[in-house]
Give the backbone structure.
Amino acid sequence: MSTTPSTPEPGTPRPMPRPGDRKRARIDALAEAGAVSDSPGTSLIASAWKRLRRNPVFLVGLAITTVFVLIALLAPLLAPNDPTEWLLKVSAQKDPVPAPRDGFPLGGDDKGRDLLSRLIVGSRQTLVVGVMATLIGLAGGVVLGTLAGAFSGWVDSVIMRAVDVMLSIPSLLLAFSISALAARPSQWTLIIAIAIVQIPIFARLLRGAMLAQRSKDHVLAARALGVKRSAIVLRHMLPNSLGPVIVQATLVLATAIIDAAALSFLGLGNPDDRTPEWGQMLGASQKYFYDYPHLAFYPAICIIVVALGFTLMGESLREALDPKTRR
């Protein structure tokens, strides 16, 4: 026979709860709230991308950077005219800088070359200098940062003191001094000078990240198992320390573009104006600045917009990968 619980009659007083019932109900509620779901976990990269694609600042920076890279890669196809040919007539007295006309929407420079074509082709040179300088600086910083973070004692001290000396000098002044040492300025002297300036930034950042990895459980477990130091450094510490360094590379790329333009403006870049570059074009416009300011405005606005795009993208990446802001 089945028995059904009897319901208390109206007016009958309910039984008093036991002292442990409320505590037990609270524990059960907390257990249900903290239960682990059966759905798969989300990786750090997937979680960061989920936040980045909803971040308007990152989307704006990504759009600017993508357009700049596409223009630089497709520059020979997008340029309407040859940037090296003197296609417009120049009069030293009446028309030293040709005005815009059909087929030349921005006019020409002081030698009658198409200004729009030179801006488009100059984007490729700016991209090459910025990317190459950043990659070389990143490689040098990874080597020094790895040595300083993996070894203690005099190795770390020597490397960090050299890094401190380089960081104590303003970056543009240091790049200017290195470029001035070259007997003949060229694009590669510009790249090497900017890369050397960026090396201590990557080295210090990577060293700090690797020092934080020393006390991690997986590193301590590998040491306890007798794994060689080189394997621990290259397989465990270094891969887990590269995240902040790669994010910093996007910010350094914007700085490298600005520094390259500044050095080219000062005449320390490629002296051959048949290969246009934004900083070089900015320097050549000085003598016509008061009468024809657009010669300086167009390359300057290109440098500002591209540097802004890389900066917005880098700052958004850093915020998305920062544990303090991933809540």
Notes: The chain has one domain: 46-86+105-325. Residues 46-86+105-325 form a domain with the MetI-like fold fold (CATH 1.10.3720.10). The chain has twelve helices and no strands.
